[in-house]
UniProtKB/TrEMBL annotation:
Top-level taxon: Bacteria
UniProt xrefs under InterPro entries: Peptidase_S1_PA (IPR009003)
Identification of the protein by name: Trypsin-like peptidase domain-containing protein
Taxonomic lineage from the root: Bacteria, Pseudomonadati, Bacteroidota, Bacteroidia, Bacteroidales
Source organism of the structure: Tenuifilum thalassicum
Pfam families referenced in this protein's UniProt entry, alphabetically: Trypsin_2
Gene3D superfamilies tied to this protein: 2.40.10.120
Length: 283
């Protein structure tokens, strides 16, 4: 089953690498092609220090580049984006109607409203700072809606940094049912809070740096170095630690963009909560 997913879907999935002005990789996401568009997670709009973006699709061997394009990051966000950046829906769509990508096959989006808990899934994504595409198997374990009414699936599979934006695929239909959203899960939120605390600590320490010494040693510099060490450790742990229970945003807010005639199945009640039927709240 998963071999079939790989053969039919893998060449539609790309890595999206973001580089700073020195050519150093500062972030990485996964995306996939739908028609002449690139779909990924909303984080693509907010990559700090990014100057260039590289979109790369690979062959069936998971490594050999099939199509590669480099763009200025500002052009990518300002000229190629589709819709608004602050859409509060955890997705991003970009126009990639370029000759380089004409040979790249398109995935298709599932228009169902509900999915059974326990359903098999496959995730195709690039792990952080790795150039090879990988496939992971898992199940739909639950679902929820956030305060904005955006619906998510909880998926039980290993998700790493770099997997955000990856397609969650139904192995039976080969259709995309959701988009991995690792950057908005509790681990990511805790990491972002920690980064803010460290930044504040360093800013406050620098205000009194060099004002007193102990045996020719500035203890404030020692504390600043300690904060930077904690920051580096936290960054590496966040990048290289996989989470077993992750979330993926459902397609309610983008399905009609790709198919204006699409009418999602209306939510229906199912016994014992076997079906995922999280409705949008009325404001």
């Amino acid at each position: 089953m998963y071999r079939k997913v790989w053969n039919q879907c893998s060449q539609s999935v790309c890595c999206i690498n973001f580089y700073n002005e020195h050519g150093i990789l500062v972030d990485a996401l996964t995306g996939f092609k739908i028609n002449k568009s690139l779909v990924t997670c909303e984080q693509a709009f907010y990559v700090k220090d990014a100057r260039k973006v590289e979109i790369k699709f690979v062959e069936l061997d998971a490594n050999t580049p099939k199509a590669v394009l480099r763009l200025d990051y500002q052009e990518f966000v300002d000229d190629l984006r589709v819709g608004f950046t602050h859409n509060n829906s955890d997705y991003a769509v970009f126009n990639i109607d370029f000759p380089e990508f004409d040979s790249i096959p398109s995935l298709s989006l599932c228009e169902r409203w509900s999915y059974p808990i326990g359903m098999d899934i496959a995730v195709l994504g690039f792990n952080s700072q790795e150039h090879n595409l990988s496939i992971k198997k898992g199940i739909v374990s639950s679902a929820f809606a956030n305060k904005n009414g955006v619906r998510y699936l909880n998926i039980d599979t290993l998700i790493c940094h770099g997997n955000s934006g990856a397609p969650v695929i139904d192995p039976e239909t080969m259709q995309v049912i959701a988009i991995v959203s690792r950057r908005s899960n509790p681990v990511a939120k805790s990491y972002n809070d920690l980064m803010r605390y460290i930044k504040t600590n360093i800013e406050e320490l620098r205000k009194i740096e060099g004002k007193f010494f102990v045996d020719d040693i500035d203890p404030i510099q020692v504390l600043i170095a300690n904060q930077n060490q904690i920051k580096l450790l936290a960054q590496n742990m966040f990048k290289y630690t996989a989470t077993g229970l992750s979330q993926a945003v459902m397609l309610d807010h983008i399905i009609t963009y790709f198919n204006e005639k699409a009418i999602l199945e209306q939510p229906r009640t199912s016994g014992l909560g076997v079906e995922v039927n999280i409705g949008l709240k009325n404001e």
